[in-house]
Design goal:
Radius of gyration: 21 Å
Distance between the termini: 6 Å
CATH architecture of the largest domain: Alpha-beta prism
CATH superfamily of the largest domain: Enolpyruvate transferase domain
Bound molecules: uridine-diphosphate-N-acetylglucosamine
Structural class: alpha+beta
CATH class of the largest domain: Alpha Beta
Shape: globular
Number of strands: 23
Length: about 425
């Protein structure tokens, strides 16, 4: 069992570089199997979700080579076969194989997806889109089979009842090789969707409107290999900007696309965080007194649900009381009880998290309940007086590339320890 041990209350300074976006790469890798040639991805983060996807691709006969941050995916040996349940279940984004296998073979047999437990995470919108394109769905135990009735999908107009990143990307993956035109209305607008559309268009797909709420896809016969640079991870960037504001004495966060973080930066400015934004970096100064603010998450370009938990420790440093409301995942509250164990004045009250800032955090033994809750505990541990031991760190390693090395380089006293 892996744990993270932190001795807190040390000032951090220096530079930290953001890796490629987890939520892009977990879609780009399944997208690559739609190509007839080799797809090379640059800027791939060193996270366990990527390891899990490589393992899945290899079982399917795809050859994958990794050289530092470059991943070369050769799908020429790809076989149409049922997906192994254990592997698929290890990460939620495995659902992107539904769309890419359907698009490639007209059929996909897959286990139901896993990932962080944030309460109910339905996939009804994904399935509704596949059905609209002519797929039939059947279940056997934990396995689901999707089959294009005609052996081929057809373009359709699909209205998404809820704005969903996963359903939008999955529909694109299924539609790029479908016959005719697909229109996605009320599409999600996250930057990762633009990244996936850019890769697919460079492979020869005809996708317009990614990044807006109406996306149009004209199906094409075949797609070829290409080379693609993964966008920087805006959630990792937001996490480290919040961390720098909480414990930094001058930290530059580099490889950042500011436009992807506007609502987050606006919230920090409302708190009184002092920072300088330049073309591809954010310099976070040592902070004075900060103000408690209300936070409410919403789909992009609103405040990201993935940044709600990593921001919480910084909110606990601010003066005053306020609330946090997650409208996307109401059950994203696993960090609250753990922060309370570290002496934070925070609790769940109805559909919100209520906090009173300004109280000093104390080191404690805590548990990461999911990926972003884990990031919140790392920041809290760095802020706290004394030692913090975080268990369940596998969650953190799913999404934060080289986190121990990156934080050690800033002067943090942080170690990964293995226990029986
Ligand atoms: C993605 C991100 C995740 C982020 C989330 C919201 C990846 C791999 N994960 O997850 O980090 O927290 O977006 O920004 O990119 N919903 C339905 N039916 C569906 C699908 C979704 O009702 O078929 C609901 C969900 O319960 C949720 C909302 O739609 O309330 C948004 O979810 P969605 O954008 O789909 O999240 P994911 O794509 O799973």
């Amino acid at each position: 069992m892996k744990k993270i041990k932190i001795t807190g209350n040390r000032p951090l300074s220096g530079e930290i570089t953001i890796s490629g976006a987890k939520n892009s790469v977990v879609a780009l890798m399944p997208a690559a199997i739609l190509a007839d040639g080799i797809v090379t991805l640059d800027g791939v983060p060193n996270i366990s979700d990527v390891d899990s996807l490589i393992a899945i691709l290899e079982i399917m006969g795809v050859s994958v080579t990794r050289d530092g941050e470059t991943l070369t995916i050769d799908p020429s040996g790809l076989k149409s076969m049922p997906m192994p349940y254990g592997k698929i279940n290890s990460l939620r984004a495995s659902y992107y194989f539904y769309g890419s296998l359907l698009g490639r073979f007209g059929t996909a047999t897959v286990g139901l997806p896993g990932g962080c437990d944030l309460g109910p995470r339905p996939i009804d919108l994904h399935l509704k889109a596949f059905e609209a394109m002519g797929a039939e769905i059947s279940y056997e135990g934990d396995t689901m089979t999707l089959k294009a009735i005609d052996g081929q999908l057809y373009g359709a107009t699909i209205y998404m009842d809820t704005v969903s990143v996963g359903a939008t990307i999955n529909t694109i993956l299924a539609a790029v090789k479908a016959k005719g035109r697909t229109v996605i209305e009320n599409a999600a607008r996250e930057p990762e969707i633009i990244d996936v559309a850019t890769l697919l268009n460079n492979m020869g797909a005809r996708i317009r409107g990614a990044g807006t709420d109406v996306i149009t896809i004209e199906g094409v016969e075949s797609l070829s290999g290409t080379r693609h640079q993964v966008i920087p991870d805006r959630i990792e960037a937001g996490t480290y900007v919040a961390l720098a504001a909480a414990v930094g004495q001058g930290v530059r966060v580099t490889n950042v696309l500011y436009e992807h973080l506007e609502s987050f930066i606006a919230k920090l400015e409302e708190m009184g965080v002092r920072m300088t934004v330049s073309e591809d970096s954010i310099f976070v100064e040592e902070q004075g007194t900060l103000k408690a603010v209300n936070v409410q998450t919403s789909p992009y370009p609103g405040f990201a649900t993935d940044l709600q938990q990593p921001l919480t420790p910084l909110l606990l440093k601010a003066h005053g009381q306020a609330t946090i409301k997650d409208t996307i995942y109401e059950k994203r509250i696993g960090h609250v009880a753990e922060l309370a164990r570290m002496s934070a004045d925070i609790e769940v009250k109805g559909d919100r998290i209520a906090y009173q800032g300004g109280k000093r955090l104390e080191g404690a033994e805590v548990k990461a309940t999911d990926l972003r809750a884990g990031a919140a505990l790392v920041i809290a541990g760095l802020m706290a007086q004394g030692e913090t031991i975080i268990s369940n760190v596998e969650f953190i390693l799913r999404g934060y590339s080289n986190i121990i090395e990156k934080l050690s380089a800033l002067g943090a006293d942080i170690q990964l320890i293995e226990e029986d």
